[in-house]
Write a structure and sequence with these properties.
Blueprint (H helix, E strand, L loop, with lengths): L3 E9 L4 E11 L6 E11 L10 E6 L7 E10 L5 H19 L5 H17 L1
Parallel strand pairs: 3-5
Antiparallel strand pairs: 1-2, 1-4, 2-3, 4-5
C-alpha cells in the first residue's frame, strides 16, 4: 500500500517537478503537546499542471530520481492567484523595493553601531 499525502505546492522546480509542503500534527513524546511538523517533498508532475499555492494529493511511487519518490495524483483546490495577478504583484514589489532603497539611513544609528563594534574590538 503506497502512502497518500495532502499538501500545498510551495515551488515549481524544473520541468515536471514541483515541491510540496506537507504539514502533519504530531504529539511530543515527553511533553505531550501537539505541534505542526512540515516536510517538503519533491513530486513528479507529468503534465506540469500544478501551480504555486494549489492544494494537491500526492502518492508514493518508485524512485524517479535521487530526490523524487512521489507523483501528483490530483489537484484538490486551485490557487486563487493567477499568473496575471502575480505579474502585477511582482511589478508592485519592484516599485516598493526601489522606494525603500532610496530612504537614507539615520547617521545617529550608524554612529552608535560603530561605537559598539569599536568597544568589542578593543576588548578582544
Amino acid at each position: 500500500m503506497s502512502k497518500t499525502l495532502n499538501g500545498v505546492v510551495s515551488a515549481l522546480s524544473g520541468n515536471k517537478t514541483i515541491a510540496v509542503k506537507v504539514e502533519r500534527r504530531k504529539t511530543h513524546p515527553t511533553l505531550h503537546k501537539q505541534f505542526l511538523d512540515t516536510t517538503k517533498f519533491m513530486v513528479h508532475d507529468e503534465a506540469s499542471e500544478a501551480q504555486v499555492g494549489d492544494k494537491v494529493t500526492i502518492v508514493e511511487c518508485r524512485p524517479l530520481s535521487a530526490t523524487k519518490h512521489f507523483q501528483l495524483e490530483r489537484i484538490l483546490v486551485r490557487a486563487k492567484l493567477k499568473e496575471e495577478a502575480l505579474a502585477v504583484l511582482k511589478a508592485d514589489n519592484q516599485v516598493v523595493e526601489s522606494s525603500i532603497a532610496e530612504v537614507p539611513v539615520k547617521p545617529s544609528v550608524t554612529r552608535k553601531m560603530s561605537a559598539v563594534t569599536k568597544k568589542k574590538s578593543v576588548k578582544s
